[in-house]
């Protein structure tokens, strides 16, 4: 006599009834015993209360895996400026497309474009004035730093911001985590 397969018995435990399986179980004591064993195991498993993870479960697993989710200062700045950069790029593309299509030459939009150009020129002058004030300030306070041209000024500022980013990553973030705990440092 052939016995029922494990798949047939598990289906029976799950409530899938089959006349052939039922007929076999009525005549086979060995399959009935195996079925009773599976039913008892199923009841014990279902009696285990479900475990609901706490809010700290994800951060604890990530810290055990060594995955660091806290953002550095540089990444926070880039992430916050990304929408502005994207908007500027889209606006520039739209402007180029409209200019190529000749929309600006055939309407009064040219007047508003020239007014916008004047505003951009005054903003550019204000930024240039601010850079020259900053340049003179750095020459007075930091005479060892050669800040003669705009490109040198850009490299100087990049070095300063890079230094701040490195301080943030390797000094301030670890101090913050030690002071306030790992779960406080993991943020989105």
What features would you describe in this structure?
The chain is mainly α. It folds into two domains: 6-47, no CATH class; 60-185, no CATH class. 76% of the residues lie in helices and 0% in strands. It is built from eight helices and no strands. The longest helix is centred in the middle third of the chain and has 33 residues, at 109-141. The protein is elongated, with a radius of gyration of 35 Å.
Largest sheet properties? none
Helices and strands, in N-to-C order? HHHHHHHH
Proportion in β-strands: under 5%
Q: Find the count of extended strands (DSSP E, 2+ residues).
A: 0
Number of helix segments?
8
Mean pLDDT: 79
Helix content: over 70%
> What value does the Rg take, in angstroms?
35 Å
Q: Based on CA inertia axes, which overall geometry fits?
A: elongated
Ranges where pLDDT stays below 50 over 5 or more residues in a row are: 183-188
Distance between the termini: 63 Å
């Amino acid at each position: 006599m052939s016995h029922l397969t494990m798949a047939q018995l598990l289906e029976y435990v799950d409530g899938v009834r089959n006349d052939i399986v039922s007929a076999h179980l009525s005549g086979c004591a060995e399959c009935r015993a195996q079925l009773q064993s599976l039913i008892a195991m199923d009841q014990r498993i279902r009696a285990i209360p479900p475990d609901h993870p706490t809010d700290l479960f994800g951060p604890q697993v990530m810290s055990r895996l060594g995955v660091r989710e806290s953002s550095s200062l540089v990444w926070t700045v880039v992430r916050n400026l990304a929408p502005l950069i994207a908007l500027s790029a889209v606006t520039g593309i739209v402007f180029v497309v409209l200019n190529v299509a000749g929309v600006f030459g055939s309407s009064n939009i040219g007047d508003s474009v020239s007014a916008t150009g004047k505003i951009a020129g005054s903003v550019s002058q204000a930024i240039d004035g601010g850079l020259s004030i900053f340049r003179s300030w750095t020459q007075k306070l930091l005479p060892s730093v050669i800040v003669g041209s705009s490109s040198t000024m850009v490299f100087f500022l990049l070095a300063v911001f890079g230094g701040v980013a490195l301080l943030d990553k390797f000094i301030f973030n670890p101090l913050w985590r030690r002071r306030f705990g790992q779960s406080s440092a993991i943020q989105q």
